[in-house]
Specification:
By secondary structure, the protein is α+β, with helices and mostly antiparallel strands. The chain has one domain (about 20-150): Mago nashi protein (2-Layer Sandwich). About 30% of the residues lie in helices and about 30% in strands. Helix 2 packs antiparallel against helix 4.
Length: about 150
């Protein structure tokens, strides 16, 4: 009886601490990425938000009269979505600091990634063009999708 109890506890622990998104509900995850440049004229900020069903790309400027916010919507392919989910590592994200380097110092620009999954939320900001090893694949894939929509 006690052995069954320990097996049940172990199974429950493993089930609730699994950190790979693909084994979890991919309908509940939202991935975001963006850039901003503080000393900039024109469209200086951009953001992409991805869910299993939709891509939302926004660009905006500090001067909202001459550069009003623009939003574009699209779809993400199942292959792209699965590849992004493979790159999400919740355990690694939990360990990351919120800020790396000196984002947008001397107008070098800032870049960020953000993951929302049920009660887990993490946003990591870093210097434009850099990567962070534990989540490098996610950063690069999100960057490529942003560039695709920038065009």
């Amino acid at each position: 009886m006690i052995r069954k109890f320990y097996i049940l506890i172990t199974f429950t622990y493993i089930s609730f601490t699994c950190d790979t998104v693909n084994t979890l509900d991919d309908n509940q995850i939202v991935l975001k990425s963006g850039t901003s440049f503080g000393m900039c004229g024109g469209y200086c900020k951009n953001e992409i938000q991805l869910t299993k069903k939709e891509v939302i790309y926004k660009k905006s400027g500090w001067d909202t009269i001459n550069y009003p916010s623009k939003t574009f919507r699209g779809m993400i392919s199942r292959i792209e979505w699965d590849s992004l989910l493979d790159a999400v590592n919740i355990a690694a994200l939990r360990k990351l600091d919120d800020v790396y380097g000196c984002p947008d110092c001397a107008d070098g620009g800032a870049e960020w990634i953000e993951v929302d999954y049920y009660n887990f939320h993490k946003k990591v900001t870093f210097e434009y063009g850099d990567t962070i090893k534990p989540v490098e694949s996610l950063i690069l894939q999100m960057r490529n999708l942003r560039r695709k929509y920038e065009r």
